Amino acid sequence: MIESLQDLTESMPPLLQWLAVMVAGAIPFVESYFGSVIGVLAGLALPVAVIAAVLGNVASMLAVVFGADAVRSRVARPAKEPSPRRLRLRRAFDRYGVAGVSLLGQTILPSQITALAMVSFGASKNAIVLWQTVSIILWGTAFGVLASLGVDLVATG
After folding, report:
1. How many domains does the chain have?
2. Of 8, 18, 139, 153, which has the fewest CB atoms closer than 10 Å, so is most exposed?
3. What is the pLDDT of residues 126-156, one digit of tens each?
4. Cβ neighbour number for residue 33 with a 10 Å cutoff
5. Are 95 and 127 in contact (CB under 8 A)?
6. How far is residue 147's CA from residue 122's CA, in Å, rounded to a whole number?
7. DSSP assignments along 107-123, one per residue
8. Domain boundaries, position 115
């Protein structure tokens, strides 16, 4: 899937490649970290690739948080047996809070799913938005820089 997204990005006119990276960044499991890699590998400048991927990821996370918060405030669901992943995320949430889960949660689940889970746990939507945005920026920048260094290493090697 990543390769297909990279091919699509490379095939677009240069001015629209940032839009393709933004759309890729909005996709769960691709997000800012792989979106920025796709942009770098497609030839975008590192800052453009990271910013586009981050914007797409933040936009989709915001839609999930605000949508889930609206639904949660209107509907009370009966409790059901949580999945093992949800239990693991809940334990992490109880231990590390919104900031910790946001920063480390990307290793467990996509930011959209992590944000949705934290809304369901009753966390402040403002805290979720703040820390998820920080996390998305950090992860996107880190992977974009690593991809850029890898591309530079291959080009000069």
Report:
1. 1
2. 153
3. 999 999 999 999 999 999 999 999 876 666 6
4. 25
5. no
6. 36
7. GTS-HHHHHHHHHHTT-
8. 2-156
